[in-house]
């Protein structure tokens, strides 16, 4: 049996995919849910409502995430958008 070529393409499932849209996105540093669900529950907000959260990630990129409140009052990330870096005078 020939030796396996180390440069051979791996199956797609072997790579971690970077999703930027769809329910259940993985939290990144700066996300509200990065360290787990927040301790305070959003009791006055209706289930299914959405709200935005803007932050700077660990690489200095501006990120906007949209969260949706679930029936158990937990949050899921529904959408993530990386915004272009703007410099002074642009």
Cα distance, first to last residue? 60 Å
Q: Number of helical segments?
A: 0
Helix/strand-derived category reads mainly beta
**Cα Rg:** 18 Å
The portion of residues forming beta strands comes to 25-35%
Number of beta strands: 3
Helix content: under 10%
Shape: elongated
Q: Residue-averaged pLDDT, rounded?
A: 79
Low-confidence stretches: 10-19
Q: Describe the biggest sheet?
A: 3 strands, antiparallel
- SSE topology string: EEE
Spatial order of the strands forming the largest sheet:
1-2-3
Brief digest:
Strands 1-2-3 form a three-stranded antiparallel sheet, with no helix packed on it. It is built from no helices and three strands.
Structure notes:
A hairpin with a 5-residue loop joins strand 2 (62-69) and strand 3 (75-83). The protein is built from no helices and three strands. With 90 residues, the protein is mainly β.
Layout of helices and strands:
Layout (H helix, E strand, L loop, with lengths): L49 E7 L5 E8 L5 E9 L7
Antiparallel strand pairs: 1-2, 2-3
What are its keywords?
three-stranded antiparallel beta sheet; 90 residues; single chain; mainly beta
